[in-house]
């Protein structure tokens, strides 16, 4: 039994089916990656865990069934979500964008802000900067920081490296690993970049056209011809 279990999850946009009977199991404190190309269903999977899509199947976190709950309830049960679109308020400061993430955890703002600043010292240095004047890497940090303002037990991150330089990708990987090591946070990321996924995650699931096609530990998949063919271009 995993900490997060996704059982026979299908997701629908009207009549179109975006996920087909997806099964995933994540242990507490694990970092896993969902690897897939454009349109594979990565965002749909994370949106579905957050209760944002129409689904069949069952999603559980610990003893709680998430299926059928709304997003605010899912956030209160300990799930944080850094989306691929960020949805930051461009004219607000870094600090105020972080505080937006605290709406369900108002009593712990100072403690959670300290945790975010410890993980991302740059967000404290730049706390009064307008978000619109930040670099892409800094915005990704604000997006991650905002998702951490409820101190989630499970953090979902949609494409943490999209559009970022290799050096910034490594910085983000380092912070996510510290988050797990120091705070015990369970982490699910999605990625198109299988190389990055393998530097951070312990296990991978490969999603193609809404279905899991390959799964296993990074060790066991490193030289898997199906994976190398699909994601490293040889
Ligand atoms: N709101 C929506 N309405 C209708 N179809 C949608 C909607 N959102 C996604 N889809 C469809 O569902 C499928 C999966 O999309 P999804 O955004 O989950 O893929 P993705 O793996 O996140 O892709 P990307 O790497 O481009 O972000 C695609 O065929 C997409 O067109
Ligand atoms: Mg997506």
In short:
By secondary structure, the protein is of the alpha/beta class. It contains ten helices and ten strands.
What do you see in this structure?
The chain has a single domain, classed as P-loop containing nucleotide triphosphate hydrolases (Rossmann fold, 3-Layer(aba) Sandwich). Strand 9 and strand 10 (211-217) form a beta hairpin. Helix content is 36%, strand content 27%. Helix 3 packs parallel to helix 6. It has ten helices and ten strands. A six-stranded mixed sheet has the order 6-7-8-3-9-10, sandwiched between helices. Strands 2-1-4-5 form a four-stranded antiparallel sheet, covered by helices on one side. It is globular, with a radius of gyration of 17 Å. The protein is of the alpha/beta class and 234 residues long. The site of magnesium ion has 4 residues, from helix 1.
The beta-strand count equals 10
Helical fraction equals 25-40%
User: Beta-sheet strand percentage?
Assistant: 25-35%
What is the quaternary state of this protein? single chain
Dominant shape: globular
Number of domains: 1
Average pLDDT figure: 94
The major β-sheet equals: 6 strands, mixed
Ions and ligands: adenosine-5'-triphosphate, magnesium ion
Helix count from the secondary structure assignment = 10
CATH architecture verdict: 3-Layer(aba) Sandwich
The helix/strand class is alpha/beta
CATH H-level superfamily: P-loop containing nucleotide triphosphate hydrolases
- Low-confidence sequence ranges: none
CATH topology, by name, is Rossmann fold
CATH class: Alpha Beta
Order of helices and strands: EEEHEEHEHHHHEHEHEEHH
Strand order of the largest sheet: 6-7-8-3-9-10
Radius of gyration: 17 Å
Distance between the first and last residues' Cα:
36 Å
